[in-house]
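Throughout our pipeline, every protein is held as a single compact record rather than as scattered files. The record that follows is passed on verbatim for readers who wish to inspect the format:
___
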Amino acid sequence: MKEEKIQTLHPLPGKINKRISLEKYTLIKDNILAILKEGDLSHTELMERLYNNVKDVFEGGIQWHGEVVKLDLEARKIIERTRSKPEKYHINSKKS
């Protein structure tokens, strides 16, 4: 049976993101959203928490998939960056 894939989006116009496994996308997306429900996090904090959450159940590059899915969630306006320094990520309150 052929693995189902999803074409992810990129937040910058004209840029094309990657096509990845739908199963991996869903796992990473669900974890990113669960992590961000607890509060705003910097990129490093988000990726560290993601790694710790899925390292025992995920096959493949966690940081790479995390970045691809994070960009997709930004493009879909599900999460967004704050204007603070350093930038932090949070769930877009207008989308929830």
Q: What stands out?
A: The CA atoms of residues 23 and 35 lie 19 Å apart. The chain has three helices and five strands. The longest strand covers residues 88-91. The mean pLDDT is 95.
